[in-house]
Write a structure and sequence with these properties.
- It is built from seven helices and six strands; from the N terminus they run E-H-E-E-E-E-H-E-H-H-H-H-H.
- By secondary structure, the chain is an alpha+beta fold.
- The termini are far apart.
């Protein structure tokens, strides 16, 4: 578990990474409001969710109220029965749409944290884990979403892959 509380959108980003990695295990979160969250994943899919004393969809409805927390992922077999939950991708989209925080970089203040997460996730599909560093370098200069997409696509060596990145990003951002 990290030492300091981090913004909840960053925890959602970690959950998205675990989803893409098809991880199996439990994500434990201790919120800054002294509540606990348990998210059990089986091959990347969320099969169990609890927040404080709520479970399933009731817990999901409360997650957007979390401001910050500390987390730890425990890899390994999960023993929970599968709950009736929306698809994991829908859960992640819901959590990202509820993120209204703007980025702290002055040049990227026009981008929401959700947009930054989508840009980084899409870029990672083309350049791998270096995407986080590229986004950190490039998004500070972006004046708007279009210039951010253009700056990141310029970091992809293949023109056809750069076009794929642009299309993917625009489709995910709606």
């Amino acid at each position: 578990m990290s030492e300091d509380y981090i913004p909840f959108p960053e925890i959602v980003g970690e959950l998205a990474r675990l989803y893409r990695a098809k991880a199996t295990g439990t994500l434990f979160v201790a919120t800054d409001a002294n509540r606990s969250v348990h998210v059990m994943l089986e091959k990347g899919e969320i099969i169990y969710l609890s927040y404080a004393n709520k479970r399933g969809v009731e817990a999901l409805d409360l997650l957007p109220s979390i401001a910050a927390g500390r987390y730890r992922f425990q890899e390994g077999r999960v023993c929970a029965n599968r709950m009736q939950l929306p698809a994991t991708a829908a859960i992640l989209n819901l959590l990202r749409k509820n993120d209204r925080a703007a980025v702290s970089s002055p040049g990227a203040a026009c981008l929401t944290q959700h947009q930054r997460n989508v840009l980084q996730d899409c870029l990672a599909e083309f350049v791998g884990p270096i995407a986080a560093l590229v986004c950190e370098d490039q998004l500070g200069e972006a004046k708007d979403l279009r210039s951010a997409i253009d700056a990141l696509s310029a970091e992809i060596s293949s023109p056809s892959m750069a076009q794929e990145f642009q299309a993917l990003t625009l489709s995910r951002l709606g």
